[in-house]
Amino acid sequence: MHTDKHLPYTAPAYSPETALQRSRAFLHDMQQRRSLRFFSDQPVPFEIIQNIVATAATAPSGAHKQPWTFCVVQNPELKKAIRIAAEKEEFDNYHGRMSDEWLDDLRVFDTNWHKPFLEIAPYLIIVFKQSWEKAGTEKRKNYYVNESVGIAAGFLIAAIHQAGLVTLTHTPSPMNFLQQILGRPDNEKPFLLLPVGYPAPDATVPNIQRKALEEVMVMY
Question: Most exposed: 28, 120, 130, 141, by fewest CB within 10 Å?
Fold first, then answer.
């Protein structure tokens, strides 16, 4: 029903056959997506980054509050500062904070506290979550913030892959240094750090497999 608060909506019209083909094609494409730690410094046109972020911002959110900020970092000095701070936290993680079980689970990835990709990748996209928003001098609550920002991050990662780029979900805990380096307001907290660019020519990925569909889907 059309009212001042609601507008007509027309969904894309696909035949069942076309919808099936599209779903298969999208599945096949996303099955090629991998998290990478080896980036090329090859420049990426900025409009691609803009489109990727704009796609992420189409995600649904609690009460349509859109409680996210996407900070795009290209400045080499800022990337270096982020790397230094991230490696400090990661060194502490690998040398005491992480349990033996956690470290054992990471061995297949052959990773450590060194994070050179934070400077090599042309862009860093840092996703911040807004626990509340400012309306003049008033604070207004946001709802389902983690869920909303998590969905937007998923959109962002899919958009990165669709553009032929690669990324890595990097969470150097704690991440408060990102808020300080980038001078973000006190209602924003770092949620996720994504280096974005093209893969290095000699990039490799761990020899691991995703769970089969029957392991992750339950039909009732």
Answer: 28
Q: Give the chain as a 3 state SS string.
A: CCECCECCCCCCCCCHHHHHHHHHHHHHHHHCCCECCCECCCCCCHHHHHHHHHHHCCCCCECCCCCEEEEEECCHHHHHHHHHHHHHHHHHHHHHHCCHHHHHHHHHHCCCCCCCHHHHCCEEEEEEEECEEEECCEEEECECHHHHHHHHHHHHHHHHHHCCCEECCECCCCCHHHHHHHCCCCCEEEEEEEEEECECCCCCCCCCCCCCHHHHCCCC
How many angstroms separate the CA atoms of 171 and 184, rounded? 17
Reported residue count of the chain is 220
- What's the topology of domain 37-198? NADH Oxidase (3.40.109)
- pTM to 2 decimals? 0.94
Query: Cβ neighbours of residue 28 under 8 Å, at least 6 residues apart?
Result: none
Q: How many CA atoms lie within 13 A of 48 on its CB side?
A: 16
Per residue in 169-205, pLDDT (tens digit) is: 999 889 999 999 999 999 999 999 999 999 999 999 9
Q: What are phi and psi of 87, to 5 degrees?
A: -65, -30
pLDDT of res. 93 = 87
